[in-house]
Design goal:
The chain is an alpha/beta fold. It has 3 helices and 7 strands.
C-alpha cells in the first residue's frame, strides 16, 4: 500500500543489483561499514556508480536519491544517489548495478578488489514509467 496514493501500486523500482553486485556490497560492508552509491554522470569513471562509506560523499540539492536498496546480509539499506542532471537524462530507464573484472576509479571502494561496478540499463515500460512518475510527483509535493 502506498501511503501517498492510499492504494496498492505495482512493485516498480528504478534500480536493482545483480547477485554478483550484492555479494560485493556485502563484502565491502563487512570491511567499511554502512555504504552508499553515487553516480555523477561526469567524464571518465563518473558515469559509473561509485561506492563510498556512508556519508563520505556529500549529497545535496543537485542529487536525486533513486532508491534505498535492501541487500540480503546488509543490516541497513544502501542509498543510491545520482546527479540530478544525469537523472533527467536517465529517468526513463531501469538501472541494474553489476560488477565486472577490471579497475575503475580509485575513489570507489571496490577498486582494490580488481573489479568495478557498472550500470546496465533498459527502458522502463509505459506502465512502470507512469507509476514512477506519479510517485516522483507525490514525493516532490511531500518534500
Amino acid at each position: 500500500m502506498d501511503p501517498h496514493l492510499g492504494r496498492q501500486v505495482p512493485a516498480v523500482s528504478r534500480i536493482a543489483l545483480t547477485p554478483a553486485a550484492a555479494r560485493l556490497v556485502r563484502r565491502l560492508r563487512e570491511r567499511h561499514g554502512p555504504l552508499m552509491f553515487h553516480q555523477s554522470g561526469g567524464c571518465c569513471d563518473g558515469s559509473s556508480p561509485m561506492c563510498y562509506p556512508l556519508g563520505e560523499f556529500r549529497t545535496g540539492g543537485s542529487d536525486v536519491l533513486l532508491a534505498e536498496l535492501a541487500v540480503e546480509g546488509v543490516p541497513e539499506r544502501v542509498g543510491f544517489w545520482m546527479a540530478a542532471e544525469q537523472f533527467e537524462l536517465w529517468r526513463h530507464t531501469h538501472l541494474t548495478v553489476d560488477v565486472v573484472p577490471g579497475r575503475g576509479s580509485g575513489f570507489s571502494l571496490e577498486a582494490p578488489e580488481g573489479v568495478r561496478f557498472l550500470i546496465r540499463s533498459r527502458l522502463l515500460t509505459d506502465a512502470e514509467a507512469r507509476v514512477l512518475d506519479t510517485l516522483d510527483e507525490l514525493h516532490k509535493g511531500a518534500g
